[in-house]
Structures are given as structure tokens and as C-alpha cells.
Design the sequence.
């Protein structure tokens, strides 16, 4: 998954010639407003980096500006007007992203817009939708996903965090972990166990949790590269009013499924709305990075290097063409909807394979260099490029084989047993 | 393969599939091989009647090119041919017809195209050298000027169906550049030496040119100026070749999926074991990549898009490598039966391995991509 902004390549393409009068007016309004209010897109700047508090603060401002300027915030364009959106169709969203290409967008709202928004729209009460969606669009609320726990993430339905009803409140106790942006988030979507006496999928409830409360302690976790993008939370009598249960009590798995599907769709698409070119080129474009790298490394004429680069070009092009094909095929019915799972798997495989090729290309230059140079990054990409977040590689393989290919499901020893009779992992403490 | 076929194309696909199921299923290949025959001329003639070669031939020469999308439509046929590991001179005849239609004089078009479209004239394209890097460059046959014609010398290898061909298209290197010639196969000085090919449904030959005199009537296009035409023909050939490879892989994957659902071990279908399931998930992912790349190449070449040269090399690398890897593993999942002569899968794997290396191995296309990327 690309996580940095790119320099604009060549001339910009827009679909301006297709605009109706109304669309044209929207485009001009967006163009003028963005030029006056948005910071430029800086090549190499990360799309999101939750430990960069200034960048997070900047994104909050950008989101607010987009909302105040009547552009619906980041991706509020298709959201119904009663929830603070513009109630327009996808075409307007495409126009927005075409016009936004030269500017930074508030990519830290990824969780909020890719995951929380679809969950709220699908399962929220009117009250919840009216309360929370406008706050996402206006930049007031950053959201976190409180799903994984120290005892396990793949087996999401096995969460241990307890939710108990006391009067008209729920009280949550337990621990969540790997929460991207937990320390800067205002709200969290939290899956907890409301009934441990039934089988595991049946005893779950999804909560909308205020992160700023005494019972919620949030501790950044230090990552391989040294940064701290994720956190561990300890929930110690965290209070959630009954009106903030999302979906039905003990039916949290239904909401979790929407959440996971949205996450997968986001992963397959590249996660950050508007980070990649607004109007994807109909042609294969070879990244200029390879020629530049070959030049820098002095291997342009080297037969081995040319092989590796040729392979990398194939890898990139195949990913691009496959995701376009999948999108078209899913839309026109030529491919089943499960094709998105295949693209998601391919995106994981592609980034892993690409880092391998680049590392082979750079050789020792990729693992040690002069201080301040960018050499060791290539080797470090080998260390940190994995598919774990958003469902591990193995879980993607399970999905593709079981849902897309229809192969028999794994036998599970836990399906029909009350949750409190299953064996669980201990809860290691990773931070704090 | 393509998710954006129009109505005519869907019809073409269905018609081709029905024809092949009826006239040339995989069992037909087994019969041909057991009988020591190369391919079935009667089937080829009937196939030509369906318009397989006519796609490239203008109406005035007995074809339907004006109402077809030559390369893109032929790719649909090629994919179906892959599904049954078809044996026959489809690619070679189509590409020669394409070359003559594009670069031929009026006289050449009138002389050769009607027979090609009708399935009466078979053709082969001679251009590749004999070495490991063969497949994307011409130059192993030389053309030197003599009088108002040329003399051809050298060897072209891996020429498809040259043994059966009535007509040869030769791409030769001259001092100024590439020149192309169309010659009757019986022209003095031409010897066709069949190669021993691992793909049992494909005839390959080395064609030797020894002082072959090619008069002005044989010259296709201008002397020394055929570089662009060569690239266009190569692109068309690669599109058909990749589409065929996709069909081969798709079908082998399909029957393997049925097999892993049916075959039981330790009380459950072997397809329920993650060790196999996960590999099949990766295979379908690579197969989708191959389909996407091949379909894009077909469209790009058909439209003469600026990325056509890149697109065919991307497709060739992806289709070639994934086909071998996928079908090799599919054979593995069959267990012992997969290694028997009686099971069909070896025909598929033979074609896959062979296709990966013909028309430029992945390494050759990776090098070509580096060059196209300006490196
Ligand atoms: C960048 C990143 C961002 C993240 N953001 C968030 C977030 O915002 N919110 C959140 O809640 N979580 C987040 N996560 C957590 C992530 O969802 C979990 O790490 C992931 O689901 C795996 O869970 P686990 O770490 O407990 O590993 P485990 O589930 O314990 O898995 C360990 C290993 O066992 C394998 N395995 C498990 N089950 C099976 C099976 N059935 N078949 C085959 N193999 C299996 C796994 O693939 C893995 O290799 C993030 C993780 C990362 C890396």
C-alpha cells in the first residue's frame, strides 16, 4: 500500500470535458477554494503518520476547511445532506479528487471515512448518524478501531474485552492493541463481549466509545522502525451510554463484518482516497523511480539489474491492471464481488515482492550507507513490509480460497461451544 | 479473459468454444499424438470458415476485417484454443495474414490473402534466431541485394507450422535495416527441419535459407524499412500467444479445482487443507493478473495505444511465468495420476512451459521492458 504522496507526473488529466453545467460549477468552486485554502501536496510526505502530531493537526485543519468551504469535508460529497454531507453522486466525488491532486488531503481521517462512516451509515440509529457523521466531516472527530486484543487479532470474534450493562450504561473492561492512531483519536469503534455464555460470534456488541475518559488509558507502542503509530489501550471501567451501542446488543458480529468488508475494500483500493492519481491512466505508466534508482546505484547497464527492474515493472503493471479489471468486472457483473479479496491479496503480495526486488537491486547499498542518505531504507522495507494489519496474509488466503474459490472451510473446534468454555491466550502487556 | 467484451465478441467466444468442444476437444489432441499426426486439416478448414483468419483480411480479399477488431477478436479465439491445447497453425497464419494485410502491395494481398482466409493456404513466420534469447528480435536471416531482388541466407528457428506451411513470411536483416519477404515454401534453397518440441500440440521447425533468391514481387513493404512492421507483427503475435496461455491456465486451474473438491484424504476433501488452499488462492490471484495483463495487451495493440509495446511484454512475462507455476502445482495436487500419460494435465503443462519460453522468455521481456523504460 502506497503511503507517501507522489510528485505529479507529466501533465494532469481531468475528465473536465464530461462535466455537466452543475458539475462544472462544482469543479470551479472546488478549484478556487482549494487553491486558496489547501497546502500543497509534498512528494515523499507520508499520507499518514500518527506520531507526527503536527501533520495530524494539519489534517484536522484541512478537513475543517473542506467542510466549511461547502465541499463536504474529505469524502462527504456522497453522504446524505441530513448527516452533513452534500448528497451528490459519485461523479462529484471524482471531480473533487481530480481537483485535489495538487494538494494535501486529510489522510489521517482514513479510519473514519473508510471504515467508521460505512458502519455508521449501515447500522447507526438516526440519532447516531446525525451526531457522529457531521463531526467526522467537519474534522472534529478522528476515529480509531478498537478490535484487536493482545490475545489475538485474526480470530476477531474471540475478543475478551467484557461489556456489562449497569443501568442505562455499559461498562467495558479489558485491553485493545495495535490501534492505529489511538493516542490522537477522539472516538473508537470497539468490539466487546457482552455475553460469554453463548457461542463466540453470538455474544458480541459494537460500541461507539469516547476515547477521552478516565477509564481509557492509551499507550503508544514502539515499532520496528522506531516510530509509534499504534497504541495499546487499557479499558478500566470505560463508560458507554446505551445510545452508543452500534447495531443490536449481542449482534456486534454483523457490524464487525461491515467493518471488515469496508477495511478490505479500502485495502484493495489503496486505502487513502485521492492519494493516487484522481483519474487513473488508461495506459501502463512505468514509475520513474526505477530509472532514477538504477542511475543512482550506477547499475543502468548491468544485466542483472535490468532483469530486476523489468520484473518490478511487470509487478506494478499487473497490480494496476488487475485492480482496474476487478473494479470494472465487479461493477458490470462479469466478476463476482469476491474479486476484491483477490485484489487485496495481490496488493499484499505486490508490495512484499517489490521490496524483495529493490533490495536485490541495491545489494549492500540497501542495508548500510552514509549517515543521512536513504540507502538503508531499501533494506528496512524488507523488514517492515508485511501484511498483518487489515487481516494477515494468511487470513487473506483463507478468504480467497473459501469465499472466492468456494473451497471447504477450515474445520473449527470453537464454533458451537459457549465462549466461556473455550481456551484463550493469556493477555500480554506490550506497552504502558 | 476480458471483462469488457461486446455482444459480438461474446458471441464469437461462445461459438468458438462450442466448435472446439465438438470438433477439437482435448481428446482430439490425444488422438492426433497417438496417431503420430500434427494437426487435423479438416478441422482447420472448418475453423477458417468460421472466420478465424478472415478477421485480419479485408473484404475485397475475402475477409471480414472491416467488421471485426482483428487482434482483439483473435485473442478471444486464441484463449479458447488454449483451453483445449489446440494443435493447428492459428497464430502463424493469422500473423502472416496480418502482415500481408498491413504491409502488402495490392498484388500481394490479392495473391495470398484469400487462400489464407479460406484455410487453404497455411503460413509460417520465420524470424527468430536459434539461441536462448530468441523470440523478440529478428536478424538470424540476412538479406543482401542482388539485381532488383535479394538473396536470403541464414537460419530461422522456432518457426510454427513451417513444415506444413505453403507460404513463409521471412523477416531478414539487411544493411539498412529489416526487410520482409513472402515466399512459397517450395522456393529453391529453403529447407525446413522439424524440431523435436515438448509441446505435443505444436509443430516447430528450423528453416534454413541458402542463397534463396527473392524477387521484387516477394518483398513486403520497402526494403530496409520493416522495423516498425516487425514490431507490430510481434505485438500481434504476443497478444495471441498470451491469450492462448491464459486459456491453458484457466482450464487446468478449473479442472484442478474440481479435483481438489472431490478427492478425499484423511476423511476430508484435499481442497480443505490450508496447505493446498493457500496455494490455490495465490494461483487464482496470479491467474487474474495474467488475464488482466493479456486483456490489456489485446486492447492496447488493437488500438495502437502508446503503451502497446510495454503491454505485450508485461503480459508475456506475467502469463508465461504464472502458467508454468500454476499448472506445475496443479499437477502436484493430482498426486500420482498427474504423472501418467492418461491424464490430460501433462498436455497443459507442456504447452505452458513451452509458451513461457517461446516468443521471448520472461528474462528477454524483462530486458525489453528496461529498454522501453529508457534504462
Ligand atoms: C499496520 C497495522 C495497523 C493496525 N491497525 C489496527 C487498528 O487500527 N485496530 C485494530 O484493532 N487492529 C489493528 N491492527 C492489528 C491487526 O489487525 C492484527 O495484528 C492482525 O489481525 C493479526 O492479529 P495478531 O497480531 O493478534 O496475530 P494472530 O492473530 O495471533 O496471528 C499470528 C499468526 O497466525 C496466523 N493465523 C492466525 N489464524 C490463522 C488461521 N485461521 N489460518 C492460518 N493462519 C492463521 C496469522 O496469519 C499470523 O501469521 C493493525 C496491525 C498493523 C500491522
Sequence:
Amino acid at each position: 500500500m502506497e503511503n507517501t504522496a507522489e510528485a505529479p507526473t507529466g501533465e494532469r488529466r481531468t475528465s473536465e470535458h464530461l462535466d455537466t453545467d452543475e458539475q462544472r460549477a462544482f469543479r470551479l468552486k472546488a478549484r478556487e477554494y482549494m487553491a486558496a485554502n489547501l497546502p500543497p501536496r509534498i512528494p515523499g510526505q507520508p499520507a499518514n503518520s500518527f506520531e507526527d502530531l503536527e501533520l495530524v493537526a494539519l489534517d484536522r485543519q484541512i478537513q475543517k476547511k473542506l467542510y466549511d468551504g461547502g465541499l463536504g469535508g474529505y469524502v462527504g460529497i456522497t453522504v446524505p445532506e441530513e448527516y452533513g454531507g452534500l448528497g451528490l453522486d459519485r461523479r462529484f466525488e471524482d471531480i473533487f479528487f481530480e481537483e485535489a491532486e495538487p494538494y494535501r488531503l486529510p489522510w489521517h481521517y482514513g479510519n473514519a471515512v473508510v471504515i467508521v462512516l460505512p458502519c455508521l451509515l449501515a447500522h447507526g440509529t438516526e440519532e447516531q448518524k446525525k451526531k457522529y457523521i457531521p463531526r467526522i466531516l467537519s474534522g472534529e472527530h478522528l476515529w480509531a478501531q478498537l478490535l484487536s486484543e493482545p490475545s489475538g487479532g485474526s480470530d476477531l470474534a474471540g475478543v475478551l474485552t467484557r461489556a456489562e450493562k449497569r443501568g442505562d450504561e455499559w461498562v467495558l473492561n479489558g485491553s485493545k492493541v495495535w490501534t492505529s492512531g489511538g493516542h490522537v483519536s477522539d472516538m473508537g469503534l470497539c468490539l466487546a463481549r457482552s455475553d460469554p455464555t453463548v457461542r463466540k460470534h453470538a455474544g458480541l456488541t459494537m460500541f461507539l466509545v469516547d476515547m477521552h475518559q478516565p477509564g481509557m488509558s492509551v499507550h503508544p507502542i514502539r515499532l520496528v522502525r522506531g516510530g509509534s503509530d499504534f497504541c495499546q489501550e487499557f479499558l478500566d471501567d470505560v463508560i458507554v451510554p446505551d445510545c452508543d451501542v452500534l447495531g443490536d446488543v449481542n449482534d456486534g458480529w454483523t457490524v464487525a463484518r461491515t467493518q471488515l468488508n469496508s477495511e478490505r475494500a479500502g485495502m484493495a483500493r489503496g486505502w487513502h482516497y485521492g492519494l493516487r492519481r484522481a483519474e487513473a491512466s488508461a495506459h501502463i505508466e512505468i514509475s520513474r523511480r526505477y530509472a532514477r534508482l538504477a542511475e543512482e546505484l550506477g547499475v543502468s547497464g548491468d544485466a542483472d539489474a535490468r532483469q530486476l527492474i523489468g520484473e518490478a515493472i511487470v509487478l506494478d503493471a499487473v497490480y494496476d491492471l488487475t485492480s482496474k479489471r476487478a473494479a470494472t468486472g465487479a461493477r458490470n457483473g462479469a466478476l463476482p464481488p469476491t474479486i476484491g479479496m483477490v485484489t487485496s491479496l495481490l496488493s499484499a503480495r505486490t508490495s512484499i515482492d517489490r521490496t524483495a526486488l529493490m533490495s536485490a537491486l541495491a545489494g549492500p547499498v540497501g542495508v548500510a550507507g552514509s549517515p543521512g542518505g536513504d540507502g538503508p531504507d531499501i533494506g528496512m522495507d524488507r523488514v517492515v513490509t508485511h501484511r498483518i494489519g487489515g487481516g494477515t496474509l494468511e487470513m487473506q488466503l483463507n478468504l480467497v480460497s473459501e469465499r472466492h474459490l468456494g473451497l471447504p472451510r477450515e474445520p473449527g473446534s470453537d464454533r458451537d461451544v459457549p465462549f466461556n468454555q473455550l481456551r484463550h491466550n493469556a493477555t500480554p502487556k506490550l506497552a504502558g | 479473459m476480458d471483462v469488457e467484451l461486446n455482444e459480438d465478441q461474446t458471441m464469437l467466444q461462445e461459438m468458438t468454444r462450442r466448435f472446439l468442444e465438438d470438433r477439437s476437444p482435448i481428446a482430439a489432441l490425444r488422438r492426433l499424438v497417438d496417431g503420430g499426426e500434427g494437426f487435423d486439416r479438416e478441422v482447420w478448414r472448418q475453423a477458417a470458415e468460421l472466420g478465424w483468419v478472415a478477421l485480419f483480411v479485408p473484404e475485397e480479399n475475402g475477409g471480414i476485417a472491416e467488421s471485426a477488431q482483428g487482434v482483439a477478436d483473435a485473442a478471444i479465439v486464441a484463449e479458447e484454443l488454449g483451453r483445449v491445447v489446440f494443435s493447428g497453425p492459428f497464430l502463424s497464419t493469422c500473423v502472416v495474414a496480418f502482415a500481408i494485410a498491413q504491409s502488402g502491395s495490392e498484388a500481394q494481398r490479392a495473391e495470398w490473402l484469400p487462400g489464407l482466409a479460406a484455410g487453404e493456404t497455411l503460413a509460417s513466420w520465420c524470424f527468430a534466431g536459434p539461441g536462448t534469447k530468441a523470440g523478440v528480435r529478428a536478424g538470424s536471416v540476412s538479406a543482401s541485394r542482388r539485381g532488383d531482388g535479394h538473396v536470403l541466407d541464414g537460419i530461422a528457428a522456432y518457426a510454427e507450422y513451417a513444415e506444413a506451411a505453403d507460404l513463409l513470411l521471412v523477416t531478414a536483416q539487411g544493411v539498412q535495416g529489416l526487410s520482409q519477404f513472402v515466399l512459397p515454401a517450395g522456393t529453391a534453397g529453403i529447407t525446413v527441419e522439424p524440431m523435436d518440441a515438448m509441446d505435443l500440440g505444436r509443430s516447430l521447425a528450423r528453416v534454413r535459407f541458402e542463397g534463396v533468391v527473392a524477387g521484387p514481387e516477394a518483398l513486403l513493404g520497402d526494403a530496409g524499412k520493416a522495423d516498425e512492421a516487425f514490431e507490430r507483427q510481434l505485438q500481434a503475435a504476443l497478444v495471441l500467444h498470451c491469450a492462448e496461455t491464459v486459456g491453458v491456465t484457466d482450464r487446468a486451474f478449473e479442472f484442478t479445482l474440481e479435483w481438489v473438491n472431490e478427492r478425499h484424504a484423511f476423511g476430508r476433501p484435499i481442497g480443505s487443507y490450508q496447505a493446498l488452499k493457500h496455494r490455490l488462492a495465490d494461483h487464482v490471484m496470479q491467474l487474474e493478473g495474467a488475464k488482466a495483463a493479456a486483456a490489456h495487451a489485446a486492447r492496447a495493440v488493437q488500438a495502437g495505444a502508446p503503451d502497446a509495446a510495454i503491454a505485450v511484454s508485461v503480459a508475456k512475462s506475467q502469463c508465461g511465468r504464472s502458467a508454468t507455476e500454476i499448472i506445475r502445482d496443479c499437477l502436484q495436487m493430482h498426486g500420482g495420476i498427474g504423472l501418467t500419460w492418461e491424464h490430460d494435465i501433462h498436455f497443459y503443462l507442456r504447452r505452458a512451459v513451452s509458451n513461457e519460453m517461446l516468443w521471448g522468455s520472461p528474462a528477454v521481456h524483462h530486458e525489453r521492458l528496461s529498454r522501453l523504460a529508457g534504462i
